[in-house]
Amino acid sequence: MELLSLQSFLILLPISIYLFYYYYHSEPKRPQISRQTGFKNYPIVGVLPEFLKNRHKFLQWSTQVLGSCPTNTAIFFRPYKFYGVMTANPINVEHMLKTNFENYPKGDRFISMLGDFLGRGIFNSDGDLWKLQRKTASHEFNTKSLRNFVVQNVIVEIKTRLVPLLEQASKSGWVLDLQEVLERFAFDNVCKLAFNFDPGCLGGHGDGAAAGAEFMAAFEEAATVSCGRFFYAFPSLWKTKKFFNIGSERSLRKSISAVHRFADNIIQSRLKAKVDESQEDLLFRFIGNNENSPEFLRDIIISFILAGRDTTSSALTWFFWLLSSRPDVREKILKELEAIRVRTGKTIGDTYGVDELRDMDYLQAAISESMRLYPPVPVDTKESLNDDVFPDGTFVGKNWLVMYQAYAMGRMKSIWGNDCEEFRPERWLENGAFRQENPFRFPVFHAGPRMCLGKDMATIQMKSIAASVIERFDIDVRDKLTCPDYVMALTLRMKGGLPVTVRVRERSGGVHN
Length: 513
Ligand code: HEM
Known about the structure:
CATH 1.10.630.10, 3-stranded antiparallel sheet, 20 helices, binds protoporphyrin IX containing FE, metal-binding, oxidoreductase activity, acting on paired donors, with incorporation or reduction of molecular oxygen, monooxygenase activity, heme
């Protein structure tokens, strides 16, 4: 036995020495890593042991690492000469998202992970294919007609589904998962925007409730498993599963074909009907360009559904959790809403138009502050096309994985000051008016040419929901003092949801109706 150990040692020793020298001397830029504070990169295995140890609290761990680096930027490497850099420094973020945008596409690594599901839709493409979709979409997103369409959909969903559901919950004392409710709301909404189909996930009959629920479940599964590919320590694992069509990859294939079948049916029937001027949705707007094949139309639509699905629900779930332990903030929101109602002659239950929503400065500040601490997209990744140097002096090699961490940026003293951990909406106000933050310091909606297209729509949706819920109901979070855990996915979802009970709010004049 001892002889065997000695033999193994003698065999392994030269191999280890060889690998050590190979990794350390075959890469001329490597010395950057050892000089860098930050991620612990071991010989050969790189950051992998630390990553595996901290995977369950990835965001807190990487925030702490970035905070300890002089320029809030850290390099790591993984086996097989795979290098990456993560930053929480606004000047680096501006460089990668705007100044040297062409050098930082999403890259093949990202695109191949989501490719089976999203094809080459706007969310999953680079270069000319992306530019083309971006041009059409940004033109359409700026039209008044699309904005009105969105506002109308949100109003109907709130009045006919969300409010009745919460009223029912308040009467019967149900415990609701608020995160799930908000996700269903967002899914109904984004499907209407994408191809004017109402899946009726939050109640009602929709355009076919059973089909809608099936579509949402398949979409959910396809998105979760596709995004799960990002978190494999060794990407070859999911590729092998895919090759043999086993495990999660097998269910992924099934759910993707269900989503594609569903979307194809709608697209085919719309194409057969030729141009239907009564439609206002995105599909109608992209069909207008005759050059788009049905498959490409499907990719475009699915990308939009993915982008608009979990983001607003994530933002609002964390917002309602934060609010539950801050009655002072809630009171200020209520005061602001009351002032707007008095000025416009409205009563509780009336809906708010775009102008009134725009006047809700304090509510906007509170939602932004919540997204600063809990950004719906906590980490964003790119791939470098060529060698480059960040403005802070960090070398970035060709084909490196390049990430900015919005979660960490919201918690950097260098950006937000010593009270950065505190939930303080006032930091967004100047003489009572909401003040936009520089998007490279607050890249929650991304920034530069690829900035989120749905920012305004998301804002309308979030403020409408928050205002309607807060003025009508008291939301009691069951465990308001424990910070919920999150699920590591592309969006920041709460682990286990947000269980709440609901009470119709009592006002000085009694309970409203
Ligand atoms: C609070 C809500 C939202 C947040 C925080 C948010 C954030 C983001 C972020 C960080 C990106 C960049 C993603 C990446 O690089 O991979 C993005 C892109 C995008 N978002 Fe949003 N988003 C929100 C809501 C929406 C909504 C409601 C829509 C509308 C359907 C939407 C449509 C898009 C699209 C189409 C892109 C891709 C833009 C491009 O690549 O050119 N987003 N969003």
